[in-house]
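Ticket #4471: structure export looks truncated?
Reporter: QA, pipeline team
Priority: medium

Steps to reproduce: submit the single chain below to the structure queue and open the exported record.
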Amino acid sequence: MMNVEVVKSKLHNVSVTEANLNYVGSITIDEDLMDAATIIENEKVQVVNNNNGERLETYVIKGERGSGVICLNGAAARKVAVGDIIIIITYASMPLEEAKQYKPVFVFPDTETNKLV
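Actual output as written to the record:
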């Protein structure tokens, strides 16, 4: 049986609120946004920076619920600037026939506040 990787969910056009170089690594995401996009703590994500074209993979840390926090930590902090607009994408592996029917979750928060609209 063959599995394929498909987009599981996406947080589209959120603003980077912090970049913390002096941290072990990861991305901190407001827990409200995580819930809306079906992202769980420690899940691998791809981060795409609309401002400079950078793409990176890291894992998720839960941020304070309702805070709007989007913070790139560790080495990833060098790939963004506060205020950059990013897309956060998760993927899932599933059998081909299941993948054909799968509907990903796309979330479009307010870009200035990172709050759900």
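Status: closed, not a bug. The export was complete when the record was re-opened. Leaving a note from the reviewer for reference: The longest strand covers residues 3-15.
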